[in-house]
Design a protein that fits this description.
5-stranded antiparallel sheet, alpha+beta
Length: 145
């Protein structure tokens, strides 16, 4: 089911990493945050409780899998998880690898900037994304996402 005018119903929402029957994983491409991913439910759902119990479990398993891959491949300082939906009322989870040198750390990615960007650090993280995404997609394909 799609909702007219919903950007996550009308398009992937970023660079597609994995497309499954129920959900997809995208790389968000947020400047200053090279390892910013989203787990997006394919059908339009405004809230997590719009999903039945089995789909809620499936969704959270995907979020956990993306988080685990980020931790294993990038060893970030912290992983941020968020499902706000205030700007785009379509169920999606932000899964963001955070590093203590990023422009907003320790604040959220939506908090005020605390320091200048380090383009070399961002480039080093970005260079590791192909291996991360290969591992992530291999694991996602083994399940019925």
């Amino acid at each position: 089911m799609k909702a007219p005018g919903c950007p996550l119903c009308e398009g992937p929402g970023g660079r597609l990493v994995h497309q499954g029957e129920k959900l997809r994983v995208i790389h968000a491409g947020e400047p200053g945050f090279p390892a910013f991913y989203r787990v997006v439910w394919n059908d339009h759902a405004r809230e997590f409780t719009d999903l039945d119990a089995a789909d809620r479990v499936l969704c959270m398993e995907a979020v956990a899998l993306v988080e685990q891959c980020l931790r294993e491949q990038l060893a970030p300082t912290k992983i941020n998880l968020a499902a706000l939906g205030n700007m785009v009322a379509h169920l999606h989870w932000h899964v963001i690898a955070r590093f203590d040198g990023d422009t907003h750390f320790p604040g959220s990615v939506w908090a005020p900037v605390q320091r200048e960007a380090d383009p070399a650090r961002d480039a080093a993280v970005a260079a590791r994304l192909p291996a991360l995404e290969a591992a992530m997609t291999a694991q996602l394909r083994t399940r019925s996402f």
